[in-house]
Structure formats: structure tokens, C-alpha cells
Amino acid sequence: MTKSTIFEDLFNLTSEVAIVTGGLGQLGAEYAKILAEAGATVAIFDVKDSSSSKVEGLIKEGYKISVHKVDITKKDEVRRAYGEVTKSFGTPTILVNNAGIDNPPNASAADIGPHEDYPEESWDAVIDSHLKGMFLMSQEFIRLIKPTGKHGSVINISSTYGVVSPDQSIYDFRRKQGEEFYKPAAYSVAKSGVLNFTRWLAEYCRQRKVPVRVNTLVPGGVFQGHPDIFIEECKKRTILARMAREDEYNGAILFLASHKASSYMTGSMLVIDGGWTAR
Fold first, then answer.
1. How confident is the model at residue 6, as a pLDDT?
2. Phi/psi at 32 (5° precision)
3. Looking at residue 4, what is its pLDDT?
4. pLDDT, position 105
5. Which parts of the chain register pLDDT below 70?
6. How far apart are CA 99 and CA 38, in angstroms?
7. What does the pLDDT look like over 210-223, one tens digit per residue?
8. Tell me, what's the pLDDT at 152?
9. Are 31 and 5 in contact (CB under 8 A)?
10. From CA 230, how far away is CA 87, in angstroms rounded?
11. Is the Cβ–Cβ distance between 256 and 153 less than 8 Å?
């Protein structure tokens, strides 16, 4: 068996229909790209109005990618978008739950200040974008795939900050600049919730006799124009002494999506973080 034949046997997704939430973001677009390159028809669900240059380029190259404007925290929008995908391409068999917000660099003083003053509305927005969205997306995915008897794969995206607490000392440089900065709890709580939702859903699918595997990908920090001082702090805490490139999780996505490559894996988490959580 040749190398190309081995790859084709393990990672050929030409018969699959995949949904990637948050697929216009930095990592989401990469996930959509690798799935499309492996032959899958990919539907991107994103709250944004405009597409990304990466996604537009893939569409121009002929890859089977569609973009759907969806707020995944709203059940009616989720069902509407699933209906569009099913009507055009067939029942989705791969779901990458990637969408979710964090407090942006230009967040308000309350959002990055003391925990005691963290706004309730910010907490709700972060938790809902990760967990409520994942909940609604998985509901419709299971509802549609169960009657078909097809095998499916759900990939929930967590974070190292869902496995270990953020190291607040990484942000000392901001405090030295006069800011009162703390990495808020909401993102970590949401990403931690992803881990047990994955375990719960994997067991539920077994009990419901739905042939869907459910796993979590735990990525580490990805370079995204961070200041040099922040990068240096990350390097000190990572065994590989660097942040990840945005394409370094593509192999994991392909592995978890493939019903042959990861056929005996469910309810598990795959940690790819340069050694961050090993210390």
C-alpha cells in the first residue's frame, strides 16, 4: 500500500458534510480549509456578515464551502441554517463546535478589571456563545443524523484555559503599564464546561444508539499579532517555547473527523498545546 493510498483510506472525507461554527475566524477558517481539502462539503456558520479572505480564496479555488449567517445561541436560527445545509448538501455528518467569544483586547475596564466588578451581561454573553451555542448545535445535529443511521463525528473546541487556570502573572506587563487587568473567569469556565459536555454527549449517543463519536480538541495559544512581551511570557511557560501557528491544529481536526482514523475514540480530549499543561 502506497503512502497516498494510506492517506486516502484514512482521511478521505468526500462523502461527508461538515459544519464549522465560527468558521470565519482565525482557527475556524483553518478547520474549514482542511476539511474541504480532504473532500468534505463544508458549511460555515458564523455571526459575522462578511467572509474571510481565506474562505473566499478556497471558494474561488472550487472547494465546496458555503457560508451561513447564524447566531448559534438562537434556536430558530440554528434550525433554519441546518435546514439550508440539509436541503442543499444532505445530512451533516461532521460538526465542529468552534464558535465562542472571549473578552477582546479593547474590552471595557469592567470586563478586564477585578472579578468582583465583572459585568453580568459579559458573563452571559461568553457562556452562551460557547455552551448554549454548542448545546443547540448538537441537539439539531443528533436530531437529523439519528434517522439516517450514518456515522458522525462531533468535535468540540476547548482550550488550555479550560484544563488549567489562566496564569494571571502572564499579564503583569499590562499591570506595570498602569492597567488593572485580570483574565476573566467566564472564558475558562465555558471552556471547562466543554470538556464535560463532550463526555456527556458521547455517553448519551451510546444510550440513544446514535453512531456519533464526540471528542474535544484542546488547543494552546495561537499567535495573533500579540505584543513581544506577551509572546516571551508564553514561551517561558511552554515546553516547545513558542506559540502555535494557526495551521498546527489541522491534523487533529482531520484525525477526529475521520471515521477510520479515530474510530475507537469518543468522550475523550486531545490536547495540543506545546507542552503548556504538562508543567
1. 80
2. -60, -40
3. 72
4. 52
5. 1-3, 104-106
6. 22
7. 999 999 999 999 99
8. 99
9. no
10. 46
11. yes
Q: Could you give the C-alpha distances from 152 to 47, 54, 205, in angstroms and in order? A: 25, 26, 10
**Domain residue limits, the chain:** 3-108+122-164+185-224+246-271
- Predicted local confidence at residue 1, as pLDDT: 59
pLDDT of residue 25: 94
Tell me how far apart the alpha carbons of residues 156 and 59 are, in angstroms, rounded to a whole number.
Answer: 25
Q: Do 23 and 31 touch, CB atoms closer than 8 A?
A: yes
Contacts of 249 (CB under 8 A, 6+ apart): 27, 30, 31, 217, 219, 272
Percentage helix, strand, coil for the chain under 3-state DSSP, each rounded to 5: 50, 15, 40
Beta strands per DSSP E along the chain: 17-21, 41-46, 65-69, 94-97, 152-157, 212-219, 269-272
Q: How far apart are CA 102 and CA 72, in angstroms?
A: 16
Are the beta carbons of 238 and 220 closer than 8 angstroms? yes
Q: Tell me the three state secondary structure of residue 56.
A: helix
Let me know how long the chain is.
279
**Do 142 and 212 touch, CB atoms closer than 8 A?**
yes
Burial of 116 (0-12, 13-18, 19+ CB in 10 A): exposed
Q: Report DSSP state, residue 155.
A: E
The domain 3-108+122-164+185-224+246-271 is placed in CATH, from the list 3.40.80.10, 3.40.50.12780, 3.90.940.10, 3.40.50.720, at: 3.40.50.720
Q: Is the dihedral of CA 239, 243, 249, 251 positive or negative?
A: negative
- Tally Cβ neighbours within 10 Å of residue 221: 21
